């Protein structure tokens, strides 16, 4: 038994013996951005295209025993969006796409978490891209690997909801409206 679990059990026993309620609070986790990834997939002329955000930050306060007290937030550096080609990367920073000079960050802030079927979490929150905020909800799988907790999930969105692809790019015959955001966030206590 580890020292940490011994201390936790002792605090629990003392609070129960004293008749005090033990308040379940979420605990901040350290995000390992080197092992984490945020990526998207969309279709261009019906061909899947994958891209990643090379820079992002996340704050996760999580309590498995009281999931509803947990919260998370993510900031994506739009200028770090990488399609694997410098010319394409420069193009998507323009006003018609991400408009990175005016909207350098996209972000997500949770408004609620709860247990869901199959051991998953259901996460709700507000997603803001290019100055447009919408309420979203999506499942998240939580895994343990050694001391790490890994949060994985997908969030399908419509790019036109966020004005990504303005002017002639609103035509979805070239670039589909559907975009899937995939994430794998590795955290440590």
Automatic annotation (TrEMBL):
Record keywords, A-Z: Signal
SUPFAM superfamilies (alphabetical): YceI-like
Gene3D superfamilies (alphabetical): Lipid/polyisoprenoid-binding, YceI-like
Signal sequence bounds: 1-26
Keyword Signal: yes
Every Lipid/polyisoprenoid-binding YceI-like domain range: 28-188
Alphabetical list of Pfam families matching this protein: YceI
Spans through the membrane: none
Protein name in UniProt: Lipid/polyisoprenoid-binding YceI-like domain-containing protein
């Amino acid at each position: 038994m580890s020292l940490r679990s011994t201390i936790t059990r002792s605090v629990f026993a003392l609070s129960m013996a004293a008749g005090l309620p033990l308040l379940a609070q979420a605990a901040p986790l350290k995000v390992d951005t080197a092992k984490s990834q945020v990526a998207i997939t969309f279709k261009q002329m019906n061909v899947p295209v994958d891209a990643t955000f090379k820079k992002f930050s996340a704050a996760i306060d999580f309590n498995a025993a009281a999931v509803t007290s947990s919260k998370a937030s993510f900031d994506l550096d739009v200028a770090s969006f990488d399609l694997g080609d410098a010319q394409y990367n420069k193009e998507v920073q323009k006003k018609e796409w991400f408009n990175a000079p005016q909207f350098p960050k996209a972000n997500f802030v949770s408004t609620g978490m709860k247990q869901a079927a199959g051991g998953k979490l259901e996460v709700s929150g507000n997603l803001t891209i290019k100055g447009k905020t919408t309420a979203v909800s999506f499942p998240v799988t939580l895994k343990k690997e050694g001391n790490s907790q890994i949060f994985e999930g997908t969030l399908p969105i419509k790019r036109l909801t966020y004005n990504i692809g303005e002017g002639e790019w609103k035509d979805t015959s070239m670039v589909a409206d559907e975009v899937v955001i995939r994430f794998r966030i590795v955290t440590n206590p």
